[in-house]
Amino acid sequence: MTAVAEAPVAGAIPSFQVTLRLRRFNPETDTEPRWEDHTVTMHGTDRVLDALHKIKWEIDGSLTFRRSCAHGICGSDAMRINGRNRLACKTLLKDLELHKPITVEPIKGLAVLKDLVVDMDPFFEAYKSVLPFLITSGNEPSRERRQSPEDRARYDDTTKCIMCAACTTSCPVYWSDGQYFGPQAIVGAHRFIFDSRDEGAEQRLEILNDRDGVWRCRTTFNCTDACPRGIEVTKAIQEVKRALLFRRV
Amino acid sequence: MTTTIPAPRTPRRLRGRTNTELYAWMFMRASGVLLVILIFTHLFVNLMTGDGINALDFGFVAGKWADPVWQVWDLMMLWLAMLHGTNGLRTIINDYAERDQVRLWLKVGLYTATTITIVLGTLVIFTFDPCPPDAAADLLPSFCPVP
Ligand code: HEM
Ligand code: SF4
Ligand code: FES
């Protein structure tokens, strides 16, 4: 750590120099992505997103990345930081190794549009194809659809997804065979398949039984490691496999 | 303002409803479990029991294949390992071969090699005769009856 204490004010936050090695690509001028280093002074409370902001706002306004909430809610700023998929807004600089440059790249497996921005369409297409909405039959109840706490707990984990794509773009099967639905689509399907109020489980299971569905999963666990919401993604995928094997949800 | 980046993935369609991938996935697990038993017993019997590795020669193999138990054992090992390995390679081809033509030809090659190996292997296990009657005497192992 190259932490250098600033003026010795009581309670001052330590600041340090940090180098960000950014993977940049400008479709109007570049044919290939390139690396670019920036060294900035940051504080112990700062996150990678703050460093990106500092570079964009004070050094190079053309740096392009997505972010919205800046607090781990919207899922906009998944990127590959030091080779691992994470949210820039949830990654504290002080938790990284600061003696060497921090690499920041776009998430893998989706086409890069500019700098850290990728084309998310194929990702959302996969999500849409698992019918991620409540499917019911019969008359609408006049009151809310009730559910026991146990039934709610069944799929609680997969309701936490913020669709950041960190899992899907950490999956080696998705990198090499882009036809695979990817972990997030299976998480999205899981959320409804195991919902006692929903009646579309059979349809969704059939979709995921496809050649490019759950059977492509090789239990690598990259998705579980990547998920910023701590969702047990691999477990959800295995639960879908089990439901398919025994045709019971 | 086009870029050199390959076009994003095309939307997916559902190919008819089959359980092929489900069965392939189950087969990998089932054959895996069987292979553990088959392969390790095979290794133990060949390499550890009796004189161990020193006993391994033409005669040893001939002796084993005279016994229907070992014929069936080796047959199962052959078939399961070949089908398991072939299905594993099929998965890897699906992963890494991007163009349809490449996929197709790699698979044609794979299935051809598998078929030849399984057919030849099966034939050898069941038709193996250490002392073929019409062979030249100097090519035969010592334990063959002298005509
Ligand atoms: C010793 C007992 C064995 C066990 C328990 C076993 C188990 C497995 C399992 C469960 C898979 C599926 C992995 C997945 O889908 O995530 C697999 C894949 C594979 N197996 Fe085996 N196997 C055994 C022996 C063999 C043998 C003898 C061969 C070669 C002939 C072989 C070749 C392969 C290949 C090529 C794959 C695909 C690898 C991949 O999916 O990346 N295995 N094995
Ligand atoms: S499962 Fe986790 S990693 Fe995947 S999209 Fe949802 S929040 Fe992101
Ligand atoms: S900016 Fe919203 S999740 Fe990071």
Automatic annotation (TrEMBL), chain A:
Keywords: 2Fe-2S, 3Fe-4S, 4Fe-4S, Iron, Iron-sulfur, Metal-binding, Oxidoreductase, Tricarboxylic acid cycle. It catalyses: a quinone + succinate = fumarate + a quinol. Binds 1 [3Fe-4S] cluster. It comes from the Bacteria. PANTHER family: SUCCINATE DEHYDROGENASE [UBIQUINONE] IRON-SULFUR SUBUNIT, MITOCHONDRIAL, SUCCINATE DEHYDROGENASE IRON-SULFUR PROTEIN. Residues 16-110 form the 2Fe-2S ferredoxin-type domain. Pathway: Carbohydrate metabolism; tricarboxylic acid cycle. GO terms for biological process: respiratory electron transport chain; tricarboxylic acid cycle. PROSITE patterns: 2FE2S_FER_2 (PS51085), 4FE4S_FER_1 (PS00198), 4FE4S_FER_2 (PS51379). The keyword 4Fe-4S applies. One of its GO terms (molecular function) is 3 iron, 4 sulfur cluster binding. The keyword Transcription regulation does not apply. Its EC number is 1.3.5.1. Residues 151-173 form the 4Fe-4S ferredoxin-type domain. Belongs to the succinate dehydrogenase/fumarate reductase iron-sulfur protein family. Pfam families: Fer2_3, Fer4_10. Its cofactor is [3Fe-4S] cluster; [4Fe-4S] cluster; [2Fe-2S] cluster. InterPro entries: 2Fe-2S_ferredoxin-like_sf, 2Fe-2S_ferredoxin-type, 4Fe4S_Fe-S-bd, 4Fe4S_Fe_S_CS, Beta-grasp_dom_sf, Helical_ferredxn, SDH/FRD_Iron-Sulfur, Succ_DH/fum_Rdtase_Fe-S. This is Succinate dehydrogenase iron-sulfur subunit.
From TrEMBL, chain B:
InterPro entries: SQR/QFR_C/D, SuccDH_FuR_B_TM-su. It comes from the Bacteria. GO terms for cellular component: membrane. Its main location: membrane. This is Succinate dehydrogenase. Gene3D superfamilies: Fumarate reductase/succinate dehydrogenase, transmembrane subunit (1.20.1300.10). One of its GO terms (molecular function) is metal ion binding. It is found in: Membrane. It holds the Pfam family Sdh_cyt. The lineage of its organism: Bacteria, Bacillati, Actinomycetota, Actinomycetes, Jiangellales. The chain crosses the membrane at residues 22-45, 65-83, 104-128. Keywords: Heme, Iron, Membrane, Metal-binding, Transmembrane, Transmembrane helix. Signal peptide: none annotated. It comes from Jiangella aurantiaca.
